[in-house]
Design a protein that fits this description.
transmembrane; two-stranded antiparallel ribbon; mainly alpha; 2 strands; Na/sul_symport_CS; membrane; about 500 residues
């Protein structure tokens, strides 16, 4: 799961934040009062609120959660949305899904299930330098499919640093060590890319699913299993390709030596035997993932694998069609999170798998960020601003061929999110991309889906993603090397996302 760096910041405002505090209202005022703009009064107000909120998001003029509440106040005050509709945007089904997933992830982290899994993967791959890099990338990608990518990186970083120091004990203390940089960058990059594999892996995925369901109910819904079937191949392909690029192209890592094998073995021994709480938490999370994947029918070509949702409906209300949303993935997530509060940890202390102090550290600002974006998008739709912008840029979409269009959208989103929040950027741009595609006579998924995935693929700068910032803070990755390597990896993923979407995802999701 991903929340960009803005969601982490709580320190004193910098120069950009102080400037943004004034630039946001200035832009809003210009949109409201500049004569001659091709906007009606309602569209002016929606555009003004969007400009204000986007500026404050991007510059962190206010804490991200507080900025995210601004649309709930201004859109009703300006007559764009009624207050009830604005408030509803902050607690919809998909935000409940994220809330439940966050709680479950905190349970996994509380009992160290993720650490045992990570060390098991790293230890199984091998102890040679290149293999250790691969092991860290595999573990990071696997964990961040289900857990917050920042937490994954923070958990893996001390293990990685210990391995690096074990190697440096033999080689001397080079400040530009290829093995150290490959391991740390591989860890960060895999944490970011791993999140695209599941609907709960990163916030932009939820942004897409919410906008797609709200704006295009006539199109087939995308189930949890379909999403994984479509995008897990990107992760599976990226890990070996990224590993080869890091260890043999951009950074030359030697092939021989038992780098850090003793450190990994010692870390695994320190874990001891699996405690009852670990086993129970792993079981709860495994059942949750299975319920998510198998809830809805999974159509694959002419074959449909039935899900348990319809069977449950037949048992609860025989002969009554309850529709596809009687029990959603959010129902599963919240239900299993509640189970964690009921199941004893099994350590004799009376503790449960989850308690309220454990979930108080939930990233509430990320949930508010999602809600604020949904509220703005509802304002776009209510005012007709999305249609207007789509009419302006739609013709340019029609000129480009499908592959070139996807390539341009992916490249633009990847490099834009080097300096902007991936979640905030998708919140603002997805309604525009969708409307432009509709105006051009193109399936809106052709622009929305690749843009969503590309938003999680920014690797050049420490500020681009929290995993980048975490590994940069170790002091072992010079910023000029991060930028150079990240640029190459960005370009690689732009091509990979474009090809996988065109050759695989379109077939899986039935996109013409």
């Amino acid at each position: 799961m991903d929340a960009n760096l803005e969601a982490l910041g709580s320190g004193s405002p910098g120069r950009a934040a102080r400037a943004g505090l004034w630039v946001g209202p200035l832009l809003a005022g210009l949109l409201l009062f500049t004569p001659g703009l091709p906007l009606d009064p309602l569209q002016r107000r929606a555009a003004a609120v969007t400009a204000l909120v986007a500026t404050w998001w991007l510059t962190e003029a206010l804490p991200i959660g507080i900025t995210s509440l601004v649309p709930a106040v201004l859109l009703p005050l300006l007559g764009v949305l009624d207050g009830r509709s604005a408030a509803t945007a902050y607690m919809n089904d998909l935000i409940f899904l994220f809330l439940g997933a966050f709680m479950l992830a905190l349970g996994v982290e509380r009992w160290g299930v993720h650490r045992r899994l990570a060390l098991g993967v790293v230890g199984a791959v091998g102890a040679h330098p290149r293999r250790i890099v691969l092991g860290f990338m595999l573990a990071s990608a696997l964990l961040s499919m289900w857990l917050n990518n920042t937490a994954t990186t923070l958990m893996m970083l001390p293990i990685g640093v210990a391995v690096i120091e074990a190697v440096r004990g033999r080689r001397g203390s080079s400040s530009d060590d290829p093995f150290a940089m490959a391991l740390l960058l591989g860890l960060a990059y895999s944490a970011s890319v791993g999140g695209v594999a599941t609907p709960v892996g990163t916030a932009p995925n939820q942004v897409f699913l919410a906008r797609y369901a709200a704006d295009f109910p006539e199109l087939p819904p995308i189930t949890f299993a379909q999403w994984m079937l479509a995008w897990v191949p990107l992760v599976v392909l990226f890990v070996p390709v990224g590993w080869l690029l890091l260890t043999r192209v951009f950074l030359k890592v030697e092939a021989e030596g038992e780098a850090g094998a003793d450190v990994i073995a010692a870390e695994r021994r320190a874990l001891g035997r699996m405690r009852p709480a670990e086993r129970r938490m792993a079981l709860v999370f495994g059942i949750t993932a299975l319920l998510w994947v198998t809830r809805a029918d999974l159509p694959i070509g002419s074959v449909t694998i039935p899900g348990w949702h319809d069977l449950l409906g037949a048992l609860v209300a025989p002969g009554v069609d309850l529709g596809p949303n009687m029990v959603t993935n959010a129902t599963v997530a919240i239900g299993m999170a509640v189970v964690c509060f009921l199941v004893p940890a099994g350590d004799g202390s009376g503790a449960r798998l989850l308690d309220w102090p454990s979930v108080m550290v939930l990233p509430w600002d990320v949930l508010l960020l999602l809600g604020g974006g949904f509220c703005i998008a509802d304002g776009f739709k209510a005012s007709g601003l999305d249609v207007l912008i789509g009419e302006l840029i739609g013709p340019s979409f029609g000129v480009l061929g499908p592959t070139l269009l996807v390539l341009c959208v992916v490249a633009a989103m990847s490099f834009l999110t080097e300096v902007t929040s991936n979640t905030a950027t998708t919140q603002v741009l997805l309604p525009v991309l969708a409307s432009a595609a509709v105006q051009a006579g193109i399936d809106p998924r052709t622009t929305m889906l690749p843009a969503t995935i590309a938003a999680s693929c920014a690797f050049m700068l420490p500020v681009a993603t929290p995993p980048n910032a975490v590994v940069f803070s170790s002091g072992r990755v010079p910023i000029h090397r991060m930028a150079r390597v990240g640029f190459g990896v960005n370009l690689t993923l732009v091509v990979m996302i474009t090809l996988i979407y065109q050759l695989w995802v379109r077939r899986i999701l039935g996109i013409e």
